[in-house]
Structures are given as C-alpha cells and as structure tokens.
Amino acid sequence: MGKRGGFVSNEFRWKQRFENFSKAYHTLCRILKRHKELPEDEIIKMALVQAFEFTYELAWNVMKDYLESEGFTEVKSPKQTMRTAFQVGLINNAEKWMETIQKRNLASHAYEQTILDETVQFIRDDFYLLVTKLYEDMKRDAHETRN
Question: What is the 3-state secondary structure (H, E, C) of the chain?
C-alpha cells in the first residue's frame, strides 16, 4: 500500500502517464509555433486539432491517475475527473476544462471550416494556457515525489 491508502502502482501509473502527456504537450507546443508562422495553413490547423485531441485525452487521464493515487475513486469520466481535480486544487479553472470536453467532442467535425477555425482559436487562446499550467504543476509534483 502507498502512503495514502492507494497501491504503489497507482503512483507509478500516473507518473508513466505523465511522461506520455509530456510528449503530447511538447508536440502541441511545436505545432502551435508552426501555426503562428503559417496561420492559414490547413494542414497545420488539422495537425493542431489532432495534437489537441491527444493532449486532452492524456491530460484528463493523467489527472484521473493522479487523483486515484491520492485515494479518489469517483473519477471514471472526464467530467468527474475535472470536478474532483478542481475541488482538490489540481486545476483552477473548471469551467474552461468543461468547455475543453465540449470542444474535444466537436473536434471530430473539424473537416467543417467553421468548426476547424473555432477549435483552432480555442486551442490557441484557451487550451494552451490550461494545459501549460497543468503540465507545470504536475511536472513539479512528479519531481517532488521522486526526491
């Protein structure tokens, strides 16, 4: 058993998932940089939406795994995970994270120009800030628990 009643494997699992999340986050950052250089390039926009989908999935799953390692059991869906993460202070903008869930669900319709443009704008203006804060906070937590 771990320090808070969870299994040691739960702590290992969230750190393992964090490594994957970290890779997806850095890919998102690289594509965002290219998008700034070529804002009208449709291929880059589509790549950005794809990176958003991967990064979002890993973000909510790393939150879920982290919360489970802390002893929380009611974190089976993205909405449950976001609510719990907000309640314990893991994230500080539950409303924007809930909007992220909606945007992610619409992303499969990114072949429609309006949805593509709205999704790209959301990624650039909102999601990037949310996911950067999560990345920085979880990176610090992962580092602190190693020592």
Answer: CCCCCCCHHHHHHHHHHHHHHHHHHHHHHHHHHHHHHCCCCHHHHHHHHHHHHHHHHHHHHHHHHHHHHCCCCCCCCHHHHHHHHHHCCCCCCHHHHHHHHHHHHHHHHCCCHHHHHHHHHHHHHHHHHHHHHHHHHHHHHHHHHHC
Whole-number Å distance between alpha carbons of 81 and 85: 6
- Report residue 39: phi and psi, to 5°: -65, -20
Tokens 């950052």 correspond to 29
Residue 118 near residue 99, CB atoms below 8 Å: no
Q: Give the chain's domains with CATH numbers.
A: 8-146 (1.20.120.330)
- At 71-127, the pLDDT tens digits run 999 899 999 999 999 999 999 999 999 999 999 998 888 778 899 999 999 999 999
User: Are 6 and 68 a contacting pair, CB within 8 Å?
Assistant: yes
**Please, which pLDDT band fits residue 7 given cuts at 50, 70 and 90?**
very low
> For the chain, what's the residue count?
147
pTM of the model: 0.88
